[in-house]
Design brief:
The protein is mostly helical. The chain has one domain. The protein has 3 helices and no strands. Helix 2 packs antiparallel against helix 3. It is rod-shaped and about 160 Å long. It starts with a helix and ends with a helix.
């Protein structure tokens, strides 16, 4: 009888353990599926973030190169304008020398000194006004372009700060533009 009772007790314990094993196996499988799902989601998010980072890095690099190209082009354009102004100044200087020679020649021909002086003053004022107007225009263009460049650098800093709030290697290249 004791043997029978022990057998029943062992059978009941085996059934309870089997039920517990089944329950724990189901729980483990469910946890494993959830972990696999979370891992897949994390992997997808990580890959997406990496792609976005690469896109942003390439965009910033492209913008930096574009700004460098634009500033180089602007420097070249300003150099050409300066050369043109120098040539114009030399041309005006030559014209002025020619005018002075003509004045001497006219003096020798007994022309009216008053008429020559009036003509000389008129030409000087025209030349001076032309120079002043060209200088005003160049100054306005340089100020406008400088302002636009400052705005672009500030925009780049804002974009970099948004995406790289800690130290960022692109800050070094931006310092070359506006500071």
């Amino acid at each position: 009888m004791q043997v029978l009772e022990r057998a029943r007790k062992a059978e009941a314990e085996a059934a309870a353990l089997k039920s517990q094993l089944k329950s724990e196996t189901a729980t483990s499988k469910k946890s494993l599926r959830e972990m696999e799902s979370a891992l897949a989601e994390s992997t997808a998010l990580s890959q997406k973030a990496e792609r976005e980072y690469i896109t942003l890095r390439d965009s910033i690099k492209s913008m930096t190169e574009s700004w460098k190209h634009d500033t180089d082009r602007l420097r070249e354009e300003m150099r050409k304008r300066e050369d043109k102004l120098k040539k114009d100044a030399e041309s005006v200087g030559k014209k002025y020398k020619l005018l002075a020679e003509e004045m001497k020649e006219a003096h020798y021909h007994q022309t009216s000194v008053k008429e020559l002086r009036g003509e000389d003053m008129k030409i000087r004022k025209e030349v001076e006004e032309e120079f002043r107007e060209e200088i005003r225009q160049l100054k306005a263009q340089v100020e406008l372009q400088s302002h636009q460049s400052d705005e672009a650098v500030e925009t780049a800093r804002c974009v970099i700060f948004l995406f790289c709030p800690t130290s960022c290697p692109y800050e070094l290249s931006l310092k070359n533009f506006g500071e």
